[in-house]
Specification:
Elements: E1 3-7, E2 10-12, E3 18-25, E4 34-39, E5 46-51, E6 58-60, E7 68-73, E8 78-83, E9 92-98, E10 115-116, E11 120-124
Length: 126
């Protein structure tokens, strides 16, 4: 059974940084693409970033490009989202997700991901 657990969220002031972690059990991230999404109350989940299974390809939403960085540690079976220069509009519940098929392409589409964590809250406020 695949389980994803996010951690690292919290309260931070504007301009601050956080690093989110997504730890997997029951699946090796070395063979599967992983994405980060976020959601605010009353809104749909939106794409933030993804990393290909090989880590050779990374892609970011325009809203976070240049501020966020996605990475993975295959030995730790963990994917990270380093978030810098945080702004109040980054406040959301952040989810990681993994695709079901090995060596599949990474995707911006929420519907392409089969496994989801429960999320970690990020709040950016003075």
């Amino acid at each position: 059974q695949v389980q994803l657990v996010e951690s690292g969220g919290g309260l931070v002031q504007p301009g601050g940084s956080l690093r989110l972690s997504c730890a997997a059990s029951g699946r090796s991230f070395s063979r599967y693409p992983v994405g980060w999404f976020r959601q605010t109350p009353g809104n749909q989940r939106e794409f933030v970033a993804f990393i290909s299974w090989s880590a050779a390809y990374k892609y970011y939403a325009d809203s976070v490009k240049g501020r966020f960085a996605i990475s993975k540690d295959n030995d730790e079976n963990t994917v990270y989202l380093q978030m810098n220069m945080l702004q109040p509009e980054d406040t959301a519940l952040y989810y990681c997700a993994a695709r079901a098929q090995r060596f599949s392409e990474a995707s911006l589409k929420e519907s392409d991901y089969s496994y989801w964590g429960k999320g970690t809250q990020v709040t950016v406020s003075p």
